[in-house]
Amino acid sequence: MTAQASSRRTPSMDAMQNDVLAEVRNHIGHLTLNRPAGLNAITLDMVRLLQQQLDAWASDANVHAVVLRGAGEKAFCAGGDIRSLYDSFKSGDTLHEDFFVEEYALDLTIHHYRKPVLALMDGFVLGGGMGLVQGADLRVVTEKSRLAMPEVAIGYFPDVGGSYFLPRIPGELGIYLGVSGVQIRAADALYCGLADWYLDSSKLALLDEKFDNMEWQDTPLKSLQNLLAKHAVQTLPDAPLQALRPAIDHFFALPDVPSMIEQLRAVTVADSHEWAVSTADLLQTRSPLAMAVTLEMLRRGRHLSLEHCFALELHLDRQWFARGDLIEGVRALLIDKDKSPRWNPPTVAELDAAQVASFFHGFDESGS
Asked: Is 88 part of any domain?
């Protein structure tokens, strides 16, 4: 929180209101994540402000559509404010429990929102940022967009609906993105169906002008689509994942993470060798437990409803801080910054199928 008290409001309320900016112009509700110094990482206060504003606009006849964006030049949203969740757990508080319940409810609100939501995904769109945009009707990327579900790098799993939207990417691309945590750019985001439109970032100001002056015709969604069709494109050439698709579909359909790494290292085909070896190297830096649970979660998520996927993620969350690798990952990468996490187990070779399966015990697969 950064804002200072300048009125009779409490300082925390001032800061909260400044962390999310909301205004209505020409029947569009504009919501801006406003923590640019922190790459717009989302806090529980921000989740509550976004939910409150979306609820208000849902029944406001003056608002036809909503536009989501992040302040600053670097990020739409680089994820949840994980440091605050770490501190909550370490102090015996419940912030980390409340955060996930309310964050997932917000993401679900966006998926089911009765008015079109347009997300401007300029800069980093990571983790919790992906949760905000993947339920939007119109998802716009730029040349600066960097999308990822990078949770396995800190010993966590791709949540915020990742168990739903990742396995629904064609082939095994979503499994690859979730298990590896790699970042992708605009062309791959369009190819994977994680974005709908591409627009040069230099044209975002022009798009804002068009929003302010557009005439509403037909349905609000159609009006926005017509506007984007005049300024943006829906495909880009040379998506790297398109060329890698046959290899990814092969390796990431293998039964488990150790098999993936072993076979990636065995690749001798020239055009795949470098990618395969670098991917195997990357996987061996990730939390073995997080990758294994992620793989199981995504494969289950393929067959679950959106609501049931969020329920599965909450089921995992309730155990993960105490039993998973997140606290150690945050310590090693964000707190002590020694970059030497002591994963449990330390290597994929030591993964125990029973340990992985235990996280899913008690979860009702039927959704009843």
From this structure: yes
